Amino acid sequence: MTGIDTLIQITHAMNALRAPVLHAAIQALDLAQGSQGLDAGCGIGMQAVSLAKAVGPAGHVTGLDISPEVLAYATKLASQADLSEQTSFQEGDVNRLPFDDDSFDWAWSVDCVGYMPVEPLPLIKELARVVKPGGRIAILAWSSERLLPGYPLLEARLSATSAGLAPFSQNMPPESHFSRALGWFREVGLEDVSVRTFTGEAHAPLRDDLRIALRTLIQMRWSGAEPELSEEARALFRRLCLPESPEFIVHSPDYYAFFTYSMFHGTVAE
C-alpha cells in the first residue's frame, strides 16, 4: 500500500468522527450563498465537498493540495457527489498560493495551515493576500481529546510523549503553537478575530464505523509512544490501546470518548 493509499484509508476511517464536527464548523461560518472560496490543504476533498454544498449551486470552492495523487482522488469524490461544477482542484503549495490577490471571498484550512512544523505567519499572510477585503479566513485543527475513560494518568503520560505531542512540537516557542493563533491573526492585521471550539463524541454501544475510527485514532495518536513509558505504563498501554488485546478499551461496555476541533477566524481589513 502506498503512502497516498494509506492517507485515503485513514481519512475515510476517521470521517465518522470528524465529519459531524467539521460540518458544525462550516455551519457556524454561515458562508454566503454563491460565494467563491479556497480550501487550502484540501487533502482528499471531503471538506471541499461540504463547503461546496454550503455555498450552493452558484458558489464555487477551489481545493489546493501539494499532492497530485490526492487531488485526483478529490476530483473523483466531488464527481461522485455531483459537485464537479461547483469545485475545482489545483496543485500548489500553501506557502506560495498560485492565485492572484483578492481571488476569493473566503479561505478555509483544516489540519494544515498553522498545524505544520513551519512558521505560521507567512501562511496566514498568504491566505489574507488571496482573500478580498471584508472576506474571512478560518483555520482549524484538532485541539484535544479524552480517549481512555478511567485511565487519566496513562492518557496524560501518553500525551506528554514525543509522539503524543507531535515530534515537531518539541522546542517550539509558545507563540508558534496552534492554540496561539489569535496572535497570528492579529499580527497579520485581520479584524474581528475570534475562536470557537467544536466537540465530537462517541459512546457505547458503538457503531461499526465509530469503532473503526476510534481504533484508527488511538493508533495514530500514540504510535511510537511506548519507548518513553515506564514498564508499568507500557504494560497498561498494551492491554488497553492495542486492537488485538482482549481488553482493548474501545470494547468496554461503558466506553465514552470526546475530542475537540478549534477554529480561529478573522476578517481581512477593508
Structure, briefly:
This protein has helices at about 5-30, 45-55, 70-80, 120-130, 150-160, 160-165, 180-190, 210-220, 230-240; strands at about 35-40, 60-65, 85-90, 105-110, 130-145, 190-205, 255-265.
Topology:
Elements: H1 3-29, E1 36-40, H2 46-55, E2 60-65, H3 68-80, E3 87-91, E4 104-110, H4 120-130, E5 131-146, H5 152-159, H6 162-165, H7 181-188, E6 191-203, H8 208-222, H9 231-241, E7 256-267
Parallel strand pairs: 1-2, 1-4, 2-3, 4-5
Antiparallel strand pairs: 5-7, 6-7
Structure characterization notes:
With 270 residues, the protein is α/β, with parallel strands linked by helices. Helix content is 40%, strand content 24%. The chain is built from nine helices and seven strands; from the N terminus they run αβαβαββαβαααβααβ. The chain starts with a helix and ends with a strand.
